[in-house]
Design a protein that fits this description.
mainly beta; 40% strand; single chain
Amino acid sequence: MYDKIQSVAEYNKSSTGTRVVSDYKNDMIFEQPRDNLLQQEFTSFEYTDKGIKRSTTVRKYRKNGDYNDTTSIEFIGS
């Protein structure tokens, strides 16, 4: 019924950061790899029934142009 949209990006690695439109939500937060970029972090805090929830997503960039995303969640107090 609907064609899936593929994300495509061309970027200059030495420029000041590029984002892409993607189904992968972290691509909407973080930049694509560029020269000298080592790491970016995004942290959010939410009230929940279990206390305050802190979610941190980290994107670590590699010299070869690849990256790895990790997410950690912790509850602070009650």
